[in-house]
Amino acid sequence: MSTATTATPELEPGHIDISQSRRPSMMTLIGVEIRKMTDTRAGLWLLIAIGVITVLINTLFLIFGDRDDLPFLAFLQFSAMPQGILLPVLAVLLVTQEWGQRTGLVTFAQVPHRSKVLGAKLLAAVLFVLAAFAIAVAVAAVLTPIAGADDPWQDVTLPYMARVILALVIGGLWGYAFGVALLNSAFAIVAYFAVPTVVSIVTAIWTSARDALLWFDLSTSSSMLFDPNGVSGKDWAQIGVGALLWIALPMALGWFRVTRMEIK
């Protein structure tokens, strides 16, 4: 008896056989996107800054604040201030680095399914938000017993913790949406900070139309998620409308643009 063998065709010099290669999984792509943030100097230092500033601000409030006013939720809210600023910037860099560093041609040549790459970037941004929140919870859990407040765990509930996570995720998604829509790091970061600032200023000045403008002011409406007393149905509706306007719409336009544009 003889065993049938299949001859492997010889490749010409300079050619690579990719017939046996597999498409990368979503988990692999997410890992690649996370690693990209640590491979660049700006991304690495931004990650370090998020962790260091979170610890530093809480430590300063512990040292100089009134210890009776430092329960667990206070430390958590202190962490949300710098994270609410830096996490959207991180999301912008995550999605714009292909164009800022001109690596888009390599990325999309290796993974032609552009929507899959964009989805991996989106999930990576959410994972960074969750990691930052975990750091904030850990810092608050360590410093709360040291502060010695009378009732340090007051109003600490799962619904409230979920709302804080949602508020941080909204910020991250907002930065991602502007990044994928504009595909320019500097322009997207400026737009992210300028647009809500202008809308909030108009809302504050135009008092007669404040109630109507709150439906377009996602920055103000999403801040209600930090209220321990809860969020009303109207507040949820305003958050939803603002998210559709400032997150869903630019994200959809950005995805359409990236999946249709010529990568150079």
TrEMBL record:
Keywords: Membrane, Transmembrane, Transmembrane helix. The chain crosses the membrane at residues 44-64, 70-95, 122-148, 160-183, 190-216, 236-256. It comes from the Bacteria. The keyword Cytoplasm does not apply. This is ABC-type transport system involved in multi-copper enzyme maturation permease subunit. It comes from Nocardioides daedukensis.
